[in-house]
Amino acid sequence: MKVLLVGPPGAGKGTQGELLANRLLLRHVAAGDLLRAEVAAGTPLGVQAAGLMDRGELVPDQLMLDLVMPAVVSAADAGGYLLDGFPRTVGQAHAARAWLRGREVDHAGPDAVVVLEVPEDVLVERILARGRPDDTEEVVRRRLRVYAQETEPLVEFYRQEQLVHTIDGTMPVAEVSDAILAELDVPRG
Ligand code: AMP
Fold first, then answer.
1. Residue 143 a catalytic site member
2. Which of 116, 93, 98 shows the shortest CA–CA distance to 180?
């Protein structure tokens, strides 16, 4: 099973990605975590990404492809993934497809897209409680704006391909996981 998790910052993509990956014995591939590891290690990629992340802006597509796509293909070959945070724009989705096609590994793309829906006031409250360095009010607002402008069109893109499953992300964490599994027809155990 190859699932892409989409949702605004604070919707619970990271939490659900990790929980479901553990439960289903699949890999959790989180774009933001991969980026933060590069920043912490001080690699050239991390240095390039750090300022953009601090401001809540998107990191260039090519850099994201280089960072995330090898992990996606390797996870797909190992049985599947919960992918969170990439693609985040329609442009990235096209670029990711071209990347896979160029390597003849089209099968590694997602077969379901789970969209976590949470109203903005709940998001802001959750994010400010989380306290990551890019979680200041101004940066959070920018990330929410980037989501509305760049990522909501991506949801439409996948909706047209009938891949989208929408989940109420305001429920308690365990109920959100159960709802996702039910939507994806995964037997619970
Ligand atoms: P996240 O942990 O998913 O909230 O991502 C944290 C930050 O990493 C974002 O605000 C962006 O600066 C950057 N980032 C994560 N995923 C992407 C992506 N797909 N494209 C561009 N930038 C990204």
1. yes
2. 116
Helix then strand then coil, % of the chain, to nearest 5 = 60, 15, 25
CB 142 within 8 A of CB 53: no
Give Cα 64 distance to the centre of its chain: 12
Pocket of ligand 1 from Cβ distances under 6 Å: 9, 31-32, 35, 52-53, 56-59, 64, 85-88, 92, 134, 143
Strand pairing partners for 115? 6, 166
Q: List all residues 6 or more positions away from 130 whose beta carbon is below 8 Å from its beta carbon.
A: 10
Beta bridge partners, 2, equal 81
- Residue 189's pLDDT is what? 61
Backbone phi and psi for residue 168, each to the nearest 5 degrees, phi listed first: -75, 110
SS3 assignment, position 133: coil
How much distance in Å is there from the Cα of 45 to the middle of ligand 1?
Answer: 13
Q: Which residues of 34-56 are buried (b: 16+ CB within 10 A; e: fewer)?
A: bbbebbeeeeebbeebbeebeeb
Q: State pLDDT tens for residues 14-59.
A: 999 999 999 999 999 999 999 999 999 999 999 999 999 999 999 9
